Amino acid sequence: MTAAPTFLPGLTQLPTLTTRRLRLCWLTPADVPALFTIFSDPAVMRYWSREAFTSPTEAAELQTQIETLFRERSLFQWGLTRLTDDEVIGTATLYGLHTQHRHAGVGYALGSAHWGQGYASEALAALLEFAFTELSLHRLEADVDPRNTASRRCLEKQGFREEGLQRERYFLYNEWQDAQLFGLLRSKYQTSLPG
What we know:
Layout (H helix, E strand, L loop, with lengths): L16 E2 L3 E4 L6 H8 L2 H4 L10 H17 L2 E8 L5 E11 L4 E8 L8 H16 L4 E6 L4 H9 L3 E12 L2 E11 H6 L4
Parallel strand pairs: 5-6
Antiparallel strand pairs: 1-2, 2-3, 3-4, 4-5, 6-8, 7-8
């Protein structure tokens, strides 16, 4: 017999989070085409931990997996939509949620047509607030290919600090890729808040 999930008990889907320009929302089967557009783009997937999707079936499997892992409370993955429309332009994720140690990993992906507009930073800020306030997490972690300067800047802007390097962690696109490790503690997050 397994214990009941402790994160967001009683909810059947993720709560919607709203920022100045974005809505972080529950992903449904209707969002599968948008997920395929995002995760089949080689530019988006260049520094991801898996290769780009080649079939819409993979996007459908991702959406189903997101629902399943939410029920297990091990992964919370939101779709990112602009307040001006309902098109999913990216995702924001808490993964590897651990109740005892109160930590999780963070991830995000944004369609390349929407790069350079600050959407990833805005979504990540909402994710951090939710993780530290609503879930009472103690620590958040991320790993980034050191060549992905935009993602590194996004994390650093939110207070993440580099904690190490895992050499040749992933084998993708016929090459070994390093992973730069970042971490953020709730105490450091709270002291960086304005006011």
